[in-house]
Amino acid sequence: MFSHHWGEGEPSFHDIEGHPIYGMPTNQGVRKLQTFCTVACERDYLWAWSDTCCIDKDSSAEVQEVIGSVFAWYRRSALTIVYLADVFDTGTLESSEWFRRAWTLQELLAPRSVLFYTGNWSLYKNLTSWNHKADVAVLEELERATGIESRFLTDFSPGMDDARSKLQWASSRRTSRPEDIAYSLFGIFNIHLPVLYGESAENALGRLLAEIISQSGDISLLDWVGEASPFHSCFPAHIISYQPLPLPPPQPDAEEHTLKVIQQPAPSSTALQTLYRSLAELPLPRFLSRRLILPCIAHDVTAIQLKTADPHAPSYTYEMQALGLRPLEITLLSELENVTTLPGVLQIIRPWDRKLLGSPTGATRHI
Questions:
Q1: For the segment 321-348, what is each residue's pLDDT rounded down to a tens digit?
Q2: How confident is the model over 196-254, as pLDDT tens digits?
Q3: Rounded to whole angstroms, what are the CA distances from 10 to 108, 309, 349?
Q4: DSSP secondary structure letter of residue 367
Q5: Which of 49, 66, 194, 347 lies at 20 to 30 Å from 4 by C-alpha?
Q6: 93 near 124, Cβ under 8 Å?
Q7: What's the CA dihedral at 298, 301, 305, 307 to 10 degrees?
Q8: Which residues contact 244 (CB under 8 A, 6 or more apart)?
Q9: What is the β-pairing status of strands 328-332 and 286-288?
Q10: Euclidean distance between CA atoms 30 and 12, whole angstroms
Q11: How far apart (Å, rounded) are the C-alpha atoms in residues 91 and 124?
């Protein structure tokens, strides 16, 4: 299969229908297609596929099918040939426009085997290995160019896991048609939604984000900075809102700002069991008629360390890091057991349902 940045004169499905490609009038796009087929043939492949001319873009049904299936096609391909037209002998991967286009993200993640070719159709850095994804030096370059860890580059599984990271990977990429920024992610999230060319980019992205939350309950998607979407104010208008923010420069004399939570007197075991059951029975966050139903916000604890302990008080202060929160300190009346095994097990819960706090009135809060 072929992956490339589209340029001038790309041949369409109807351009090549019924014509041998080597007999067609040549221009930049046709020459690129001809060379791709030659390279595939030299590697003993009898069939080659290019998105420019193997899709009838005049058929909306075929376009819908392709967008829903193309990730799986690249995943099952014996080899994906990536053509970097703007990289030459002394160039680097990250200098290529290919890494700034949205559709090429899934064309990088899906294939098991990839070979990069430069502008003069020579193998990148003359690396003759059967798979550039298996080359350590190339993987390091790919990490720098994409911000994606090598473990995802070599063994990526489509789906809802770590949804916000996937949006961050796409946040600096562009498309010719604004709504394609969302459609290009359908395969990465393994989502099947209607393709509605002509809708706004905000609507397309909003539909995607709503579906991710409805299927996974992952509310990390609500962590963004930028302009709110007209689709729903909880969502960003543009995917660039998921770009990582630059860290502020360290201030040598600045005090560390942390949130400190003091535990109230320990509730009875019956109260704890009741709270646990209430949390366990909560429905996942979901969208219903353009309304976000969010019973509570759960933050996974990723790191925890005992800072100070006074058994006589009693008082035990822990430093914690949790997804979506700044570092915080929590002071408890009793010591936590097996602290080193707790990250990944503990969660910090912020209830939005007043019933979880014991209030006699109120219901699930809707945004």
A1: 887 778 888 888 888 877 766 556 787 8
A2: 999 999 999 999 999 999 888 888 898 899 999 999 999 999 999 999 877 666 555 54
A3: 21, 69, 53
A4: -
A5: 194
A6: yes
A7: -20
A8: 147, 168
A9: unpaired
A10: 10
A11: 9
